[in-house]
Design a protein that fits this description.
3 strands; Rhopdopsin 7-helix transmembrane proteins; single chain; 11 helices; globular; about 75% helix; mainly alpha; three-stranded mixed sheet
Length: about 325
């Protein structure tokens, strides 16, 4: 994808991820914090996938989508966090041009995929609450597979587009990237060519994906709210709202962080806030999602409890 006349501008190019290096005394504490978060993320998301697979009661469309959300969270965190941990304990924080582009490419795939996986989960809750009698018919295995494939395909398409325009830029020598991973804004800031088109394409992508996904989610929940409020039984209303509570919590945290990040003015004084917000949606949110769903879900908690009891029983034999 790189033009021939730009090969000299990318050959031997490296990036130094500044990260949190300005806080020398906090390197070890930050390493321990992020290592703990990443460990919980890996165990939580992979554990959620295993739990959904081994419990027949969880073989439903809702948990099928949740297992893919957990997979995306695991991949997303793994794309970013290991390099962050490495840079907290080594002095050489450089990353090759290819390594940086690859990290950016996969980070784009998973962030866009997660955005629309949450849309798919909102549609699933809409069908479950508004058309409960037709739920199993409407949410057929074929439709579920198609709904899951869509976010992955959309994420790959947008990642290819954004990466292409990023590769159109020229870079020379060693560049200081003022972030802990290869985020678009920090990369174009060190480009020696005009990043106008790349910035506009990225801005359009972020705005379009954010607005379109939120519109679908909000529309789904408006219909859900209207349907629930028409239910005559308070118990029925409570049950309907409780099935949507975890998803609503995840959406609020995820989109709230993204909106906060894009509302920050792009100035030097805001780089620390950008880093903190980036940490939240790339490192913390992938850890929170399995916790949110496991803590609020009786079937998941029962499965975990049975697994723990079985292990304890086996050890006592």
């Amino acid at each position: 994808m790189v033009k021939k006349n730009q090969e000299n501008h990318t050959a031997g190019v490296t990036f130094t991820l500044l990260g949190f290096s300005e806080y020398a005394d906090l390197q070890v504490p930050l390493f321990l914090v992020f290592l703990t978060i990443y460990t919980v993320t890996v165990l939580g998301n992979l554990g959620m996938i295993v739990i959904i697979r081994i419990n027949p009661k969880l073989h439903t469309p809702m948990y099928f989508f949740l297992s893919h959300l957990s997979f995306v969270d695991f991949c997303y965190s793994t794309t970013v966090t290991p390099k962050l941990l490495e840079n907290l304990v080594v002095e050489d924080r450089t990353i090759s041009f290819t390594g940086c582009i690859v990290q950016f490419f996969f980070a784009c795939i998973f962030i866009v995929t997660e955005t629309f996986m949450l849309v798919v989960m909102a549609y699933d809750r809409f069908v479950a609450v508004c058309n409960p009698l037709l739920y199993t018919v409407v949410m057929s295995p074929k439709l579920c597979a198609s709904l899951v494939s869509g976010p992955y395909a959309w994420g790959i398409v947008w990642s290819l587009i954004l990466t292409y325009f990023l590769l159109e830029l020229s870079f020379r020598g060693n560049n200081i990237v003022n972030n802990f991973f290869c985020e678009h804004g920090a990369i174009v800031a060190v480009s020696c060519s005009d990043p106008y088109i790349s910035q506009k394409v990225t801005s359009f992508s972020a705005t379009f994906n954010e607005i379109s996904s939120l519109m679908i989610i909000l529309t789904s929940y408006v219909f859900i709210f209207i349907t629930v409020m028409k239910m005559p039984s308070p118990g029925g209303r409570h049950k309907a709202f409780s099935t949507c509570a975890s998803h609503m919590t995840t959406i609020t945290i995820f989109h709230g962080t993204i909106l906060f990040l894009y509302c920050i003015p792009n100035s030097k004084s805001s780089w620390l806030m950008v880093k903190v917000a980036s940490v939240f949606y790339t490192v913390v949110i992938p850890m929170l999602n399995p916790l949110i769903y496991s803590l609020r879900n009786k079937d998941v908690k029962d499965t975990v409890r049975k697994l723990i009891n079985n292990k304890l029983f086996c050890h006592t034999l």
